[in-house]
Amino acid sequence: MSELTATALRLGLLVLMWVFVLSVASTLRRDIFGTTSRGRKKRSRERSASAPAPQRPGHGSTPPPPSGPPRTLVVTEGSLAGAVVALGTVPIMIGRSPESTLVLGDDFVSSRHARIFPGQNGWMLEDLGSTNGTKLNGNDVTGQVQLGVGQPIAIGRTVLELRS
User: How far is CA 61 from the centre of its chain?
Assistant: First the structure.
């Protein structure tokens, strides 16, 4: 075997070793820190076909008076205060998981915490077996409960409500 071939094999082995080390480091980083923001944007674009993504209203906007059926879910307190999710026919999943419709980065929120979905008589709220529970008007939610316009829904440090 010539000297050139031996050197090329050594360099090839060195490159393969570094590719392996960097892929292990990348996997560990994802496991420790979660998905990157690019991944969430991509998932939110995929999800936008089935459910509307949260949007921030303009500054100084005031909520309309409660009248008629609810059309939006508004975050009134918490890190996403002011975020608005339009209500359609698709259930809204709430939690820390990037696959949720409304992703809450709160330590008191489970990855699949609660869901809001259309029922026969309007919108319903269901706690999905979360660790810290869900509250509606200050009361613990067990099973499925009917939602009304303006009722505060507390999930961790975040408060939401339906608005028309």
Answer: 24
Give the C-alpha separation, 11 to 7, whole Å: 6
Give the burial class of 50: count Cβ atoms within 10 A of its Cβ; 0-12 exposed, 13-18 middle, 19 or more buried.
exposed
Please give the residue range of the domain that contains residue 156. 72-163
Q: Residues 24, 105: one domain?
A: no
Contact 114, 125 (CB under 8 A): yes
CA angle 157, 163, 164 (to 5 degrees): 170
pLDDT one-digit tens code per residue, 106-163: 888 999 999 999 988 889 999 999 989 999 999 999 889 999 889 999 999 999 999 8
Cα 114 from Cα 77, distance rounded (Å): 17
